[in-house]
Every structure is written in C-alpha cells, then in structure tokens.
Design brief:
Blueprint: E1 14-18, H1 33-51, H2 54-59, E2 60-71, E3 81-91, E4 94-102, E5 111-121, H3 132-137
Length: 142
Amino acid sequence: MTAGRGAIDFETAFVAPLTPRAEDFDMLGHVNNAVYVRWVQEMAVAHWETTAPPDMVAGSVFVVLRHEIDYRDPILPGDAVEGRTWLGRARGPRFERFVDVRKPGAAKPAAFARTDWCRLNTLTRRPMRIDAALLEAFDVPG
C-alpha cells in the first residue's frame, strides 16, 4: 500500500517530517501560528501529489475554503516535528481534511487543523465533484 493511501484516520495518515526554518520563530521563541497554515497547505499538497495519479493531479487542483486550527503545544527551536494528514467527508466538490502536527511520540498534537477544500478543474477553474475515481485513488470510502 502506498504511504498515506487509505488515509482516513491518525493511524492510516500520510506522514511527513516538518522542519521549522529560522524565520518561522516569532518573538516568543516558538513557531509562529502562520507557519502552521503553511504546513497544512504543504501536507495537503504532498499527500495529493504523492497519492493521486499524474493525470488526476494535472487535471484538478484543491483550494482551501476554510481552516480551523487549534494550537496546543509550542514548537521550539530544535524540536523535531512531524505532520499527519488524512481525509474526512467528501460532499460534492468539497473534501474535509485533517492535519495533526506534533513532536514524534507526543501524546497530544502541537496543533490540529480541520480544513475544507474544493476541487477545481485546472483549465476552467470550475468546481469538480469528488468522484469515484478520486475516492478509489485514495482508497477512502465514498
């Protein structure tokens, strides 16, 4: 099974390391909240590009409609961090996605995001339904 394929919960999630850059730290000395938004985007794109077939990636793109992020544990310089992302409910052209950012082995996330994405046709920029081919590519239920 491809890593992250069938990503429907924390245990089956697509996993990738996240590396804070020097400029990611704010005046309080921890990763700035805006960086988590960037990480959510990077995790979603990496999962999409790694798992979807090339023709599907070329023909459609996902844009974010809504981010909800809970910040729970600051990430400090030198902390190792990993992101996990998985898919939730699909409805029409929308897909729910979850992203968990945490220090490896931590019991709780440093941040947890629930996001809503809309699938668009890359040529027309019009919404495209989440179809059976996409669900099959990610091995997620409809």
